[in-house]
Amino acid sequence: MAELCTLAKQAATTDLPILIQGETGTGKELLARTIHFNSNRTESPLLVQNCDGMPDELLHS
To answer: Is the alpha carbon torsion for 47, 44, 41, 35 positive or negative?
Structure first.
């Protein structure tokens, strides 16, 4: 958990898009909201996208 918190802090300092992967119910959206809240873009809208129902071709594009 400490390693995850360290990675989240690092992710919050970048302007790059972040892909969070994991099984259902593991708190991916909560982690995304935490990273967004602690970033420089906290005043901007957060786009959360569930990629599970998207075809692979669309994700790769």
So the answer is: negative
The domain limits of the chain are 2-60
Give the whole-angstrom CA distance, residue 35 versus residue 28. Answer: 11
Query: pTM surpassing 0.85?
Result: no
In the chain the first and final C-alpha atoms are separated, in Å, by 32
- For 2-13, how does the pLDDT look when each residue is reduced to its tens digit (9 = 90+)? 999 999 999 999
**Is a pLDDT exceeding 80 seen at residue 17?**
yes
Question: Whole-angstrom Cα distance, residue 54 to residue 61?
Answer: 11
DSSP-derived secondary structure for the chain: -HHHHHHHHHHHT--S-------TTS-HHHHHHHHHHTSTTTTSPP----GGGS-HHHHH-
